[in-house]
Amino acid sequence: MNDDSTKPALRPVRGAARCAVAGLALAGAAWVARAVWQVRLATAGVPSSGPPDQGDGRHRPLTGLEDAYHVVSDLGDAATLLCAVAFLVWLLRMRDNARALSGQAPSYARPWVYAGWIVPVMNLWVPRRIVADVHCKSAPGEPLPRAVNWWWGLWLAGMLSGVGLMCTGSTDDLIQRAYTDVRFLVMVDAAVVGAAVAGIVVVRALTAVQQERMDAAGRHDESPAARL
Question: Is residue 80 within 8 Å of 165, Cβ to Cβ?
Answer without folding.
Answer: yes
